[in-house]
Amino acid sequence: SQQGEEDPQALSIQEGENATMNCSYKTSINNLQWYRQNSGRGLVHLILIRSNEREKHSGRLRVTLDTSKKSSSLLITASRAADTASYFCATDADTGKLIFGQGTTLQVKP
Amino acid sequence: GAVVSQHPSWVICKSGTSVKIECRSLDFQATTMFWYRQFPKQSLMLMATSNEGSKATYEQGVEKDKFLINHASLTLSTLTVTSAHPEDSSFYICSATSLAVGGTQYFGPGTRLLVL
Predict the structure, then answer these.
(1) What is the C-alpha to C-alpha distance for residues B80 and B19, in angstroms, rounded to an integer?
(2) Mutate which of B24, B32, B43 to disrupt the A interface (most A C-beta within 10 Å)?
(3) What are the tens digits of pLDDT across the range A54-92?
């Protein structure tokens, strides 16, 4: 069953702006991961943050995790047209199974 | 990162026929593979977990006799959609993982199935 909720469902920004997506989940987790999916394609793993971590960076990506609020955010700085895609959070409750959020569709206008 | 392939990338079939989709881990041995289904503009729904050499574990609501999964080797898992119907039309995505890749799931590019 789906346990992740993401907002916004859709986001449209201009190139160069920052994009922030939020994810909430319901149960305790081992880690939380963010994936990108270009239209009609498979998923690309972006970043993993463990339950004992609060913030993680990877290039233009910044992920935060607040386990007390059961939420995470993904920030993409200085967005590019190539960042246009759907972004999903996925939680792992130490079962090895990933439960995906509903996703945020990001459009970056050149 | 590790590479996972799927074949075919798309398939069109007539209602009532069976379709086999292959998922391969190309550069690592995958002890576990997962099969997901994704309907248009929706998220991924886990269908089943496949461990090499054992029977697949299906999620609630997924018919095991309709979606046959075989994980015969550490690099190959197959999903067979039996007696396909138009409502089975979807995007099917596999992922593969093992301790050797830190438990991260690496996803295949997906297979788009259209049942006429």
Answers:
(1) 5
(2) B43
(3) 999 999 999 999 999 999 999 999 999 999 999 999 998
CA A101 to chain CA mean position, Å: 9
Is B35 in the A-facing interface, judged by CB distances under 8 Å? Answer: no
Which pair of tokens denotes residue A36? 């990108």
Contact A96 B97 (CB under 8 A): yes
Residue with tokens 């379709």: B19
Q: Provide the terminal-to-terminal Cα distance of chain B, rounded to the nearest Å.
A: 37
Q: Is A52 helix (H, G, I), strand (E, B) or coil?
A: coil
Are residues A62 and A6 in contact, defined by beta-carbon separation less than 8 angstroms? no
| Cβ <8 Å between A96 and B103 | yes
Q: What pLDDT digit, counting tens, does each position of B29-47 carry?
A: 999 999 999 998 889 999 9
Q: How far is CA B18 from CA B5, B36, B40, B46, in A?
A: 21, 18, 22, 21
Give me the residue from B1, B45, B110 closest to A42, CB to CB: B110
Q: Are B71 and B33 in contact (CB under 8 A)?
A: yes
Instruction: Enumerate the β-bridge partners of residue A98.
Output: A92
Cα–Cα distance for residue pair A35/A27, rounded to 1 Å: 20
